[in-house]
Amino acid sequence: MIGEFKKFIMRGNVVDLAVGVIIGAAFNKIVTSLVNDILMPPIGLLLGKMDFKNLKLPLSGGVTINYGAFINNIIDFLIVSTVIFLMIRQMNKLRRKEEPQEEVKSEPTKECPYCISEIAAKATRCPRCTSVLEPEALPQS
After folding, report:
1. Residue 81, Cα to own-chain centre: how many angstroms?
2. Residue ranges of the alpha helices (H) in the chain?
3. How much is the pTM?
4. Predicted local confidence at residue 141, as pLDDT
5. pLDDT for position 105
6. What is the mean pLDDT of residues 64-89?
7. Is 19 exposed, middle or buried (0-12, 13-18, 19+ CB in 10 A)?
8. Residue 4: left if φ>0, alpha if ψ -120 to 50, beta else—which one?
9. What is the mean pLDDT of residues 54-59?
10. d(CA 51, CA 30)
């Protein structure tokens, strides 16, 4: 069981996922600081020295609904999702450029005399009408 667990942990996907989670957590701290410390103060200033963290809807018994913190979290999410979208989009563009374009080798073809469909020249039976065909001599290349 320990050997299977070690094999599972050392798989590329699991290690990649762990690295992604760690980097994501660190990135989340950066974005949260960006929103709370850089973006929200000027927005609050424009809205009349309002601090979104302190926006609350008081209920009875000292209970509050902290909708200001919710607004901050929505902005966090929008920034993180936009940055991740842009990063993945760029990575996909780079990956497409790196992948070598495989040349498509076209095999010689012939026409089935019974159903007039195009088939491989080496075929001895038509895949469309299933007629038995005489093999043709192919030119040597």
Report:
1. 12
2. 2-9, 12-33, 40-46, 67-98
3. 0.48
4. 43
5. 66
6. 86
7. exposed
8. alpha
9. 88
10. 20
Structure tokens at 105: 């080798």
Tokens for 9?
């942990």
45 residue type, one letter = L
> Considering Cα of 62, then 63, then 67, then 70, what sign does the dihedral take?
positive
Separation between Cα atoms, residue 86 and residue 34, nearest integer Å: 18
pLDDT band for position 137 (cuts 50, 70, 90)? low
Quick one: angle between helices 12-33 and 67-98, nearest 10? 130
In this structure, which long-range contacts are made by residues 77-82, counting pairs with CB atoms below 8 Å and at least 24 apart in sequence? 79/31, 79/34, 79/35, 80/27, 80/28, 80/31
| pLDDT on residue 65 | 93
Half-sphere exposure of 85 (CA within 13 A, CB side): 6
